Amino acid sequence: MTETDSRGNLRRFGSHLSMRWWHALIVIVVPPVAMLILQIALFQVAQQMEGPADGTETLSPLRLLAVNLSMIVTGVLTVPLVARFAGVSWRAVLSFPRRLDRRRLVVYLGWALGSTVLGNAALGILAPDRTPWVGFGVTGTTVALIAVMLLTTPLTAAAEELMFRGAAMPAVASWVRPERLALAIGLILSSVVFAASHVATDPWLFGYHVFLGLATGVMAIRSRGLEAPIAWHVANNTFTAILNTLLAGGGDFSVARAAGSGGPHLLIPAVFVLAAVAVVWVREGRVQARMAQN
Question: What biological processes does GO assign it (predicted)?
Fold first, then answer.
């Protein structure tokens, strides 16, 4: 069921679900673990089809498909799990108390794409040596990778928002009664779990993923739904992945997570993420003000 505050008012999105403590623990722990297990299993299938991996931080089209499918399946299955434990409609996992708004999704997708393009451009200009770009090239591998990305990366990004901002954040918040404290704890812990799920051993990269979790969590809370964080996640992951693939010299898709892969250069795209959060914050404030007047 949904939560109310001490005055009987509905609590904000992100702290709006009520479930037993052990149900919340399952929601926080099981989906990321299940995703990793499924990813390993699908990797084994890919290995049987194309041979052992070369040990580098790159993904072939088939291995990228394995990663993305593991996230998509887990994200989709997480929604009915949360709805069942909380005793609510699956729609309440996506937005609350308002209905899911497709127009919001489209509007924020446009803003997010602009922010992502500018962020990558700034990174290329200010820190070109910290990008994975080696030169433009199109091969059969490039075409196959881009096909996989266009078909699955948007769904993968949406699935991550379902798991961490739609499920883990309110699950953690359900342990705490005061609304503001519940939102803060839910936001922080779900962001840490989100970062941990990326298995990054570089401290800068881990911290950047925590920051991204916090940023998209704030978008969700402010907008009372997942349209804004999904839009940003879809635009960022899809555009950046395709750009990196086109500039990989015709090779496999690079995924750098080891120590040394991060660094202060991550502050550059972080600025544009903050700009995207500011857009959501201001726009949602205006929307809520108009609703109050009516």
Answer: CAAX-box protein maturation; proteolysis
